[in-house]
């Protein structure tokens, strides 16, 4: 999505923000910290020289296992849920990586998610130390100074996109455990829809889903409509914040109605996504090249 050489690795600020919080708070989440630092190191090396995908995946899974052990799900969930959680969270890490393609999208999306989590933590369910979210917001906003601009000075790189994915997954899993509700998975709906639907479209077209492409909605919008990166990133960020507010509203409903409205939200989101993408590309299957 960019011409010429780009500077990657600016997303290391996310890791530094968490490390600063860890030192400041003197907490004992060592397993998560070890997993995060290991994932950051491997991702940073991958930013410098491309590592084999299978090699990266091993370290991603290990970091996810360390994170899940830290939150204690090995003691409260059965193995089917644990294995499912490992697969889903690893997918979340790579979804954040897939979507990190234009100026400001990772910073804006992450800020929206962190703000929603801060609201939940302060007004609804206490699932984390408020300071960890504040430190992460400071790190994300600091990165935005260099990235959320017309001519970005640096980009998050794998070290940023994958680690912020792990950190946000960590916070959401803590929220799920504290509330006893899986509804909060829908906080990741915006990225989830774009990644999952695009993968389905590419499989339908018999494409290698592991090869780079430009078929996410944000990419086709920029290529076809010639709109600015920052406008698209802002739309994604605002949409994410609104989705977060809707999920908060659904959580306030009676338990028997939550599932129904969650399904309505997912179906409506998928339909809206497909309508917009089809209007831009003229084909629901994106059979042409970009």
Instruction: Report the end-to-end length measured between terminal Cα atoms.
Output: 11 Å
User: What's the pLDDT, averaged over the residues?
Assistant: 89
Q: How would a crystallographer describe the biggest sheet? A: none
Order of helices and strands: HHHHHHHHHHHH
Strand-pairing-aware structural class = mainly alpha
C-alpha Rg, in Å? Answer: 18 Å
Q: What coarse outline follows from CA principal-axis ratios? A: globular
Beta strand %: under 5%
**How many individual β-strands?**
0
Number of helices: 12
- The number of domains is 1
Helix content: over 70%
Uncertain segments are none
Q: Topology, pairings included?
A:
Elements lengths: L11 H14 L4 H19 L4 H19 L1 H4 L2 H20 L6 H19 L6 H18 L9 H23 L9 H16 L12 H9 L3 H23 L3 H27 L9
């Amino acid at each position: 999505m960019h011409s010429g050489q780009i500077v990657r690795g600016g997303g290391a600020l996310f890791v530094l923000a968490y490390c600063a919080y860890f030192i400041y708070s003197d907490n004992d989440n060592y397993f998560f910290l070890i997993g995060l630092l290991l994932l950051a190191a491997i991702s940073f090396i991958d930013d410098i020289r491309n590592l084999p995908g299978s090699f990266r995946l091993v370290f991603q899974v290990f970091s996810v296992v360390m994170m899940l052990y830290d939150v204690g799900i090995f003691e409260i969930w059965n193995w089917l849920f644990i294995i499912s959680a490992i697969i889903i969270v690893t997918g979340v890490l790579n979804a954040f990586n897939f979507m990190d393609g234009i100026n400001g999208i990772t910073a804006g999306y992450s800020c929206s998610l962190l703000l929603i989590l801060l609201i939940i933590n302060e007004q609804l369910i206490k699932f984390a130390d408020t300071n960890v979210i504040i430190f992460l917001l400071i790190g994300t906003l600091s990165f935005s100074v260099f990235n959320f601009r017309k001519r970005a000075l640096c980009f998050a790189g794998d070290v940023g996109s994958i680690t912020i994915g792990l950190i946000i997954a960590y916070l959401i899993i803590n929220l799920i455990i504290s509330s006893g509700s899986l509804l909060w998975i829908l906080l990741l709906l915006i990225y989830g829809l774009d990644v999952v639907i695009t993968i389905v479209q590419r499989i339908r077209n018999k494409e290698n889903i592991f090869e780079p492409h430009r078929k996410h909605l944000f990419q086709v919008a920029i290529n076809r409509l010639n709109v600015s990166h920052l406008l698209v990133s802002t739309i994604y960020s605002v949409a994410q914040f609104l989705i977060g507010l809707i999920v908060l509203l659904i959580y306030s409903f009676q338990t028997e109605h939550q599932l129904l409205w969650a399904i309505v939200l997912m179906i409506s989101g998928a339909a809206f996504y497909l309508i917009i993408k089809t209007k831009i590309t003229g084909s629901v299957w994106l059979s042409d090249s970009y």
